Amino acid sequence: MIDLRSDTVTKPTYAMRQAMAVAEVGDDVYREDQTVIELEETAAEILGKEAGLFVTSGTQGNQVAILTHTKRGQEVIVEADSHVFYYEVGAMAALAGLQTRPIAGMHGMMPLDEIAKAIRPENIHFPQTGLICLENTHNRSGGTILPLSYMQSVKELAVQHHLPVHLDGARLFNAVAATGISAAAYAATADSIQICLSKGLGAPIGSVLVGSRTFIEQARKWRKMLGGGMRQAGVIAAPGLIALTQMRDRLVEDHVRAKHLAKGLANIRGITVDVERVETNIVIADVSDSGLSTEEFLTVLEQCGVLATAFGGSLIRFVTHLDVTDDQIDDAIAAVAFATRMR
Ligand SMILES: *Cc1c(COP(=O)(O)O)cnc(C)c1O
């Protein structure tokens, strides 16, 4: 199977398996796991923050950050297609007691004037704005990159209003690989950042949340409440360290393959792809002109040995990653061409 559903499907490399076997471990709730400590410090250093916290998933990292930044009854400004709003099971409402203020974005960017208008002034009737969330790269927009200048402008606005900014940087290193801008430069525009080790970087499990030392101390307690206090977690932090230190540079290969896939798909009659918008490792194809529904389309693709994801309406998402070869991309293009001839 050529699995293009997500970059989360990668299997740990041989080096990662080896590192797991020999990892130094201890009880991490007692802060005695040296491998976890090394992972947290490494992530903090790369992102230019004081401290890091190893969490079980990107969702846990985002929600721990949101819980740490806010108080119940506050309002959080989020992009309407953001992961924290769209894909985190309503956690902001259910766990943090927050109201969300979704703003429609362009390629993942909420217009600055819309953010400014959404920030609540003091009024007896109003909830208090507690946080602004950004996402880079932006998943549902097709892995698009938020420009650094845009993030700096959002930060300036937030500072004017004494608001913290949380960056969902699940795929921040894809933005770094594509632009050459450092992760620390992006991270400087946010108070907290969540990065995924288990996507393009290829680790089997986990994310790291980074921020100031005080913030991470408080976040550690929220993580414990959510059941994320782990014991000999060095066995899963070890592949995370390899992901963070050795796998960032190879993300450009995924981007080249995604561009190749996008161009190939764009040449097929019945398929619409905005090739210009393929900035990282995600390709979104519209299959409406093929005459097939997304379900029918995905079924034919699967029969051809290709897996992709339904992405709402007539859209299908393909994601390139560590375990996909150039030949497999060509096979995937051929499978899509075959599917369009099915009707
Ligand atoms: C994948 C992803 C996450 C986290 O997902 P988990 O499955 O919880 O690890 C968060 N934000 C974005 C933008 C993502 O793409």
Shape: globular
What is the CATH T-level topology of the largest domain? Aspartate Aminotransferase, domain 2
Give the cofactors and ligands: pyridoxal-5'-phosphate
Low-confidence stretches are none
Largest sheet: 7 strands, mixed
Query: Percent of residues in beta strands?
Result: 15-25%
Number of strands: 13
CATH arch. level architecture of the largest domain: 3-Layer(aba) Sandwich
Tell me the distance between the termini. Answer: 24 Å
Order of strands across the biggest sheet? 2-8-7-6-5-3-4
| Approximate helicity band | 40-55%
Total helical segments: 14
Assign the structural class, choosing from mainly alpha, mainly beta, alpha/beta, alpha+beta, or little secondary structure.
alpha/beta
Summarize the structure.
The protein is α/β, with parallel strands linked by helices and about 350 residues long.
List keywords for this structure.
single chain, 343 residues, alpha/beta, Aspartate Aminotransferase, domain 2, Aspartate Aminotransferase, domain 1, 2 domains, 7-stranded mixed sheet, 4-stranded antiparallel sheet, 13 strands, binds pyridoxal-5'-phosphate
